[in-house]
Backbone:
């Protein structure tokens, strides 16, 4: 178990180092942020002053060396634009994105699993067919378009929810969250739904396929032959078996949900890390871009680790030591 | 004779498939008395499992019980609602299956699967149910049952898993146990052990057994009576010794001839020529005609049931035993 965790962390460190290097060089190659940062009226002297202040006058290997040295000491550099530590900048925005992604996950699970179960148990029914048709739409329509349609329908036409922003937040254990205030919640629902739709379609398909397969197994027949009620057979015997693939896939998808929040956050002007990334790329704010991507890798690793642990907890046949990563 | 605990009358089970309606069980009738063992024998696809499942009311769409009656202690199960059937399943009538590797839920502990089976029918505390589960495991010969209760199915061998399934099936001392080839997937030695254990346990609790198998040698050692199925029909029925020594139906005769121990050493194994017919393309008369050495023009008509002496019956125009014996 411990060996397993250590090995996983070692691999992660390697990925982190390689990725940070590549991104660092790539952003350097793309262009000169000074031209974007400085005011159009700035003269040569001012430009040089900015270049020097940001340390961009030094050769690439020196810049990179400094970056590595600082990174090893926990300093990922200061944003060119905001002149604040990049990490602080990101961490300040992280709760908003995490809240968005987790809410979307909850929506995807709590709506997706019951719908998938229904479609799996009654594949030939009208309801079953409708659910599957809906999930195809969820899969195939572009995410930003779904977002725009949600805004159009629920904000513009019906006026139920605001079209953008994060709304009022309240501190929970020192972290600002919006689901505790009515205003915050009403701001959260549409973007969370937007982010959830694709995953919900995925959960529905996984659950349906799993249900159909599990229902044919002998152990379901045996459970019924024991005289168990329908709710016990489905709620325990079926659900516990289909949860294994669902948890695995969703865990892996949580990472991509945080990453893909970029689109949703842009559509809904939601102040999370995704929007920060887009803005930073536009301004070639290298420290923020690199820090963002490094943080994303760390997050992926942690999530995958947690998924493996949950997986081992619900499937007694899995032994982590055996799972050669 | 006393009233049978289970009496199946003219049971017809149909599956609607793309090729049309398939009749998997076609007018099957049999009786089982308390404490009796009935062997249900036949080739793969002859409808044995479907018959067993029908008795428990476990035929799912696209299948259905089209007609017939299943009387458990005189009450017709085909007329009962799903809720009423649920209360009978596991308590009055139980079933075990062929593959012990797949009959237990892989993600639930053995105690969970046993306790839920007890509490599905009796209002007892978790603790009391647990104690009973442990005793039931001990009874089927599982060593250190207390520790085994908290194991998962994959931590048991195949034979042990089948013992757990048997323990679960007998928890409520059911009137009837349908055993669908429960030893087929096991080693011969374990097969023999389990056979004798089930026989003994069933005798203790007065449970009638319907033992489904394709292996005549199992039936020879275990059953009191045997019913031979072919293409959804019972083609011959009688006391085991009687049927095995003097088969009336050419199909039964073929089955007996293909039991390895009955063949002389060095000679090729006798086999019934041809293949199990597809239900979609059965001949109009006797279903066995295409493979039957005695078939003639008469066999283009469906043979009726001929009763011959003590509980003996068969469906054949040209039986291998003298028809004068018929009562
Ligand atoms: N769900 C189903 N849908 C369609 N046909 C079915 C279904 N289940 C069973 N059948 C048909 O019913 C017939 C009898 O099947 P059954 O499982 O009872 O055979 P069996 O005698 O138990 O054979 P085996 O020895 O292989 O277990 C088969 O021809 C099969 O095609
Ligand atoms: S009825 Fe005819 S075909 Fe059928 S088993 Fe008897 S002899 Fe053979
Ligand atoms: Mg079968």
Residues:
């Amino acid at each position: 178990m411990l060996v397993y965790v250590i090995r996983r962390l070692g691999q992660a460190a390697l990925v982190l180092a390689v990725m940070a290097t590549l991104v660092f060089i790539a952003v350097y190659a793309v262009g000169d942020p000074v031209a974007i940062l400085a005011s159009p009226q700035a003269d040569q002297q001012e430009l040089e002053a900015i270049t020097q202040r940001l340390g961009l006058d030094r050769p690439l290997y020196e810049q990179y060396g400094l970056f590595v040295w600082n990174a090893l000491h926990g300093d990922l550099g200061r944003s060119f634009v905001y002149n604040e530590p990049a990490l602080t900048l990101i961490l300040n925005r992280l709760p908003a994105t995490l809240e968005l992604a987790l809410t979307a996950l909850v929506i995807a699970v709590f709506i997706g699993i019951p719908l998938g179960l229904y479609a799996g148990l009654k594949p030939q029914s009208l309801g079953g067919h409708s659910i599957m048709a809906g999930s195809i739409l969820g899969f195939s329509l572009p995410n930003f378009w779904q977002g725009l349609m949600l805004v159009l329908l629920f904000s513009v036409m019906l006026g139920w929810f605001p079209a953008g922003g994060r709304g009022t937040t309240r501190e929970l254990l020192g972290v600002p969250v919006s689901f505790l205030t009515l205003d915050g919640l009403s701001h959260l629902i549409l973007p969370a739904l937007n982010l959830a739709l694709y995953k919900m379609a995925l959960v529905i398909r996984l659950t349906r396929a799993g249900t159909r397969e599990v229902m044919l197994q002998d152990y379901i027949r045996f459970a019924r032959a024991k005289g168990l009620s329908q709710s016990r057979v489905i709620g325990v015997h079926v659900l516990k078996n289909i949860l294994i693939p669902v948890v695995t896939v969703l865990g892996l998808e949580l990472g991509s949900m945080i990453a893909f929040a970029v689109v949703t956050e842009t559509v809904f002007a939601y102040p999370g890390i995704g929007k920060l990334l887009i803005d930073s790329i536009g301004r070639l704010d290298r420290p923020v871009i690199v820090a963002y991507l490094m943080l994303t890798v760390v997050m992926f690793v942690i999530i995958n680790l947690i998924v493996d642990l949950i997986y081992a907890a619900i499937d007694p046949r899995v032994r982590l030591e055996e799972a050669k990563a | 004779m006393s009233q049978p605990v289970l009496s199946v009358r003219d049971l017809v089970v149909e599956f609607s498939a793309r090729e049309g309606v398939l009749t998997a069980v076609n007018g099957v009738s049999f009786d089982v008395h308390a404490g009796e063992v009935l062997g249900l024998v036949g080739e793969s696809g002859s409808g044995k499992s479907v018959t067993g499942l029908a008795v428990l009311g476990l035929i799912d769409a696209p299948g259905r019980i089209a007609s017939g009656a299943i009387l458990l202690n005189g009450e017709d199960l085909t007329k009962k609602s799903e809720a009423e059937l649920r209360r009978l399943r596991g308590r009055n009538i139980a079933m075990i299956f062929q593959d012990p590797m797949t009959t237990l839920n892989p993600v639930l502990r053995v105690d969970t699967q046993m306790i839920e089976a007890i509490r599905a029918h009796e209002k007892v505390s978790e603790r009391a149910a647990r104690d009973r589960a442990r005793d039931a495991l001990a009874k089927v010969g599982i060593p250190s049952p207390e520790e085994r209760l908290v194991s998962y199915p994959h931590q048991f061998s195949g034979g042990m898993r089948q013992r757990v399934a048997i323990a679960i099936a007998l928890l409520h001392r059911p009137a009837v146990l349908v055993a669908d080839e429960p030893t087929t997937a096991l080693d011969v030695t374990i097969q023999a052990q389990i056979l004798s254990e089930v026989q003994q346990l069933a005798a203790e609790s007065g449970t009638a057994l319907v033992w489904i198998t394709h292996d005549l040698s199992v039936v020879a050692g275990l059953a009191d009576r045997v019913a031979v199925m072919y293409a959804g029909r019972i083609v011959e029925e009688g006391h085991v010794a009687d049927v095995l020594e003097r088969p009336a139906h050419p199909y039964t005769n073929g089955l007996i001839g293909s039991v390895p121990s009955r063949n002389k050493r060095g000679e090729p194994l006798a086999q019934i020529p041809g293949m199990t017919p597809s239900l979609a393309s059965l001949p109009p008369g006797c279903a066995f005609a295409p493979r039957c050495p005695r078939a003639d023009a008469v066999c283009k008509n469906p043979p009726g049931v001929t009763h011959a002496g003590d509980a003996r019956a068969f469906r054949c125009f040209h039986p291998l035993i003298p028809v004068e014996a018929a009562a």
